[in-house]
Amino acid sequence: MTGTRVLDVERLVVRYPGHPPVTAVDGVSLEVGTGRTVALVGESGSGKSSLARAVVGIERPAEGQVRFDGAPVPPLGLRRRTGAFTGIQMVFQDPSTSLNPRRRIGDQIADGARAAAARGQQPGTPEEWLERVGLPAAAVASYPHAFSGGQKQRIAIARALAARPRLLVADEPISALDASTQASVAQLMRDLVAEIGAGMLFISHDLAVVRRIADDVHVMYAGRVVESGPTDRVWAGATHPYTRALLAAVPEPDGAGRIPRAPSTEERAAWADAPAVYTGA
């Protein structure tokens, strides 16, 4: 870990009511430093999004703690978050639900800029942020319906980064995009986060993109982190059987790819029983 630590997740547990209650996140610890992109990967249902929602305060932890710049993250209420905690920004999977269809794009990006100004940051203008994410400055006068899915996600990224966050949480931000734009949008996020000196927690099931942009990776299975370490070392020397199964399913660069068979009940039981590992120095 390099840079100033902006996020500390310590033994986090997230449960949902039921009979019995469902434990979505089971004792996860991780950290994110400035200038770093930390990826959280795993299958759907592994607990990635529940962890992301707890990091930003949408979900209340049952146990453990989430700290931002050393201070516990308070739960989000009905009112807009104020003060230093506007330094946490989130980009959601579907920009069509996170952008207000009745407000102009420029006004929505200006919301982020005002949050930055309130913390004494130089936010830049909506026009500048649109150009930085590859859209024309004139788009400030348009409404979300005028844009494609990929363009809307770039707008959502511009709005989040206009707030000059210390931490950007990106929950499956590219999964709704077409394959031709996924890698470019992910790389754009990494580049802009590094440029403003923030840290990013990038949640994804796309291991090919994660390998390209992440400095460190945490692999989640059944609510637990089963393997973690610098991304290149995890790819080169994965130890946990679940990580190996995930990597075996990544398509080959020539596009031929492999179609993995469905894991057996016995294999999944072995994954759950195998101890967590750190693959690093």
TrEMBL record:
<dbReference type="InterPro" id="IPR003593">
    <property type="entry name" value="AAA+_ATPase"/>
</dbReference>
<dbReference type="GO" id="GO:0055085">
    <property type="term" value="P:transmembrane transport"/>
</dbReference>
<dbReference type="GO" id="GO:0005524">
    <property type="term" value="F:ATP binding"/>
</dbReference>
<dbReference type="InterPro" id="IPR017871">
    <property type="entry name" value="ABC_transporter-like_CS"/>
</dbReference>
<dbReference type="InterPro" id="IPR050319">
    <property type="entry name" value="ABC_transp_ATP-bind"/>
</dbReference>
<keyword id="KW-0067">ATP-binding</keyword>
<dbReference type="Pfam" id="PF00005">
    <property type="entry name" value="ABC_tran"/>
</dbReference>
<dbReference type="GO" id="GO:0015833">
    <property type="term" value="P:peptide transport"/>
</dbReference>
<dbReference type="InterPro" id="IPR027417">
    <property type="entry name" value="P-loop_NTPase"/>
</dbReference>
<comment type="similarity">
    <text>Belongs to the ABC transporter superfamily.</text>
</comment>
<dbReference type="Pfam" id="PF08352">
    <property type="entry name" value="oligo_HPY"/>
</dbReference>
<dbReference type="GO" id="GO:0016887">
    <property type="term" value="F:ATP hydrolysis activity"/>
</dbReference>
<keyword id="KW-0813">Transport</keyword>
<dbReference type="InterPro" id="IPR013563">
    <property type="entry name" value="Oligopep_ABC_C"/>
</dbReference>
<dbReference type="InterPro" id="IPR003439">
    <property type="entry name" value="ABC_transporter-like_ATP-bd"/>
</dbReference>
<protein>
    <submittedName>
        <fullName>ABC transporter ATP-binding protein</fullName>
    </submittedName>
</protein>
<keyword id="KW-0547">Nucleotide-binding</keyword>
<feature type="domain" description="ABC transporter">
    <location>
        <begin position="4"/>
        <end position="247"/>
    </location>
</feature>
